[in-house]
Amino acid sequence: MTLRFSFKHQFDNQSFVIQGEIPSKGVTAVFGRSGSGKSTLLNVLCGLLSPDRGEVTFKESRLLDTEQGINVPVWNRKIAVVFQDARLFPHLSIFDNLLFGSQSKAQNERFKELTTLLGISHLLDSKPNKLSGGERQRVAIARALLSDPELLLMDEPLASLDLPRKREVMHYLNQLTDKIDIPIVYVTHSLEEIMHLADNLLVLETGKVADFGTVEHVWNGDSLALWQEGEQHSALLTAKVSERHPKYAMRKMKVAGHALWVPDQQFENKHNECMRIRIDARDVSVTLSPVAGSSIRNVIPVQLIDIEKLNDHSCLLTLALNEELALKSILTQWATDELKLQKGNRVYAQIKGVSFTQQNLATH
Ligand SMILES: Nc1ncnc2c1ncn2[C@@H]1O[C@H](COP(=O)(O)OP(=O)(O)OP(=O)(O)O)[C@@H](O)[C@H]1O
């Protein structure tokens, strides 16, 4: 673990007792309801807020220790922050914005690498007002990284963009996070961003850490239940890209020793790579035996390990693929009764092909 924090702070109407550790690699998403303390945590990490009591240690050096009177100022922490709005200087070109406050020279390899990775090389002579919101945000990310930080904090960097722009910047961020080797702490309200970008997930609830772990672990646990109400339940699994179907444009994905067939989408170069796959509970149905003559290609033997009543008419089933991984399925109470489903039953999960859209697969 590279970044450790433990602090207490009291605002007029809200107290925070937040402690945790963030690994030295990858993207750690910070998620939680409005007011749960996400920005407060970021502000303490970068030094914009001095908490009442606490400590922050980064790579064994103390950035904050209220007992010892240590509080390294923002500009000496080697931490860069990207905010929701790009905060570019309107009168400067993109080139000058990028070099503002940076040690790097334009010829510098790093400059070339970052502007290429973020797809902004062709924008260097423009002024910020000529750029789209997504492009401005990509410039802001490049500028943050050109200050050679050892830690990057991002506070809802996509929140002010419309959906197509969000996806555009997410695509660039995805490539970037594979290439840069500093840890990123990424505040977001979006499960889609988490699925596509994050390795770890820290969930805050009313000023406290409610959960922390790999994205898959936290996603499939209970702490995201508020965000996955009713029809929105899903399971997030890791799948290995395997062979293409000899006749049809379908690709085999291996999940927990089972094969899932999904529409083949730009997977040629990804053989044997792992991807994330989100399977929505509404796309999973249950049969007591494999049905002959069904149109559904994906039929997997599972064990029913939990039945939860969602409302008057539907139930949420948890279907174990193995000891660690499970699918979720939403069935009507009627079907659950008629099939006499009970915990422990061995049944078959049928997964509809519609579950495998581009949005449900992440090259993470
Ligand atoms: N400077 C401040 N002065 C007084 N109270 C504050 C201050 N900053 C934050 N708070 C309080 O702390 C709470 C948590 O704020 P914070 O910005 O950390 O939440 P958040 O999880 O980032 O919320 P959001 O998702 O809405 O940005 C706020 O609801 C507010 O009540």
TrEMBL record:
GO CC, alphabetical: membrane
A Pfam family it matches: TOBE
Start and end residues of each Mop domain: 293-360
GO molecular function: ABC-type transporter activity; ATP binding; ATP hydrolysis activity; molybdate ion transmembrane transporter activity
Keywords per UniProt: ATP-binding, Cell inner membrane, Cell membrane, Membrane, Molybdenum, Nucleotide-binding, Translocase, Transport
Domain named ABC transporter: residues: 3-231
NCBIfam families: modC_ABC
Protein name from the UniProt record: Molybdenum import ATP-binding protein ModC
